[in-house]
């Protein structure tokens, strides 16, 4: 589904991604952890071409992103992304936030898009918040609307960039529960998070990044019990 082959990325002189080789299969849940500034967000943003890679090859869902003729709009329809800050439209209701892209991008008629949006709100556990505006929702509820909005485009891949980092602790669990359900339904997911419990329980694979490199990659059981690299051990000793 996603394949990085010897990918390098530079911001000017600064090399932010170094020789990234990574293959993610359909239905896999991959959690990326690592210190701040290690390139996690950049790696994620390359997958939907919010950032272009500088060297190497990246293909996503059979599209070669390094081909200048690649259909990026088509690609993005298949990829949902959820950010730390939910980026909901403040002047639209929860339901309108969710139905907007299906209406505008997929030309789904209003009634149908609204009905589907309601189903996604139910899926993320807040069917009663349809007509609430973002400011009337808690952080956890807003993030669940943002996930519903991503799902409404029926993506093949969901990317999550620290989806719970801006939330009060008591709201983290409700968002992780929605993500866990999605994983169980077989969604292909790439998740940057500091939630080690989630990584341990839900990930098929954990990737540790440091200074632009993938330093270590393993099953969660191996990764947490038997980290190979000294830097991984140091990082884990700080976050666990
Ligand atoms: P992480 O998500 O692991 O914290 P990022 O991918 O956001 O790391 O950033 C990795 C490094 O690249 C950081 O040093 C950051 O300052 C730098 N960086 C990120 N985006 C840009 C940009 N648009 N221009 C220049 N440098 C950037
Ligand atoms: Mg980041």
Describe the structure.
Belongs to the ABC transporter superfamily. Keywords: ATP-binding, Nucleotide-binding, Transport. InterPro entries: AAA+_ATPase, ABC_ATPase_HisP-typ, ABC_transporter-like_ATP-bd, ABC_transporter-like_CS, MetN_ABC_transporter-like, P-loop_NTPase. Pfam families: ABC_tran (PF00005). This protein has 240 residues and is of the alpha/beta class. The chain is 39% helix and 25% strand. It has nine helices and ten strands. It has helices at residues 40-47, 72-77, 94-106, 110-123, 139-151, 169-184, 196-202, 220-225, 230-239, and strands at residues 2-11, 14-24, 29-33, 55-60, 63-64, 79-82, 157-161, 188-192, 205-210, 213-218. The strands form two sheets. It has a six-stranded mixed β-sheet with strand order 6-7-8-3-9-10, with helices on both faces. Strand 1 and strand 2 (14-24) form a beta hairpin. The model has no long low-confidence stretch (mean pLDDT 96).
Question: What order do the helices and strands come in, and which of them pair?
Answer:
Elements: E1 2-11, E2 14-24, E3 29-33, H1 40-47, E4 55-60, E5 63-64, H2 72-77, E6 79-82, H3 94-106, H4 110-123, H5 139-151, E7 157-161, H6 169-184, E8 188-192, H7 196-202, E9 205-210, E10 213-218, H8 220-225, H9 230-239
Parallel strand pairs: 3-8, 3-9, 6-7, 7-8
Antiparallel strand pairs: 1-2, 1-4, 4-5, 9-10
Helix pairs in contact: 3-4, 3-5, 4-5, 5-6
Adenosine-5'-diphosphate is lined by residues 11, 14, 16, 34, 36-42.
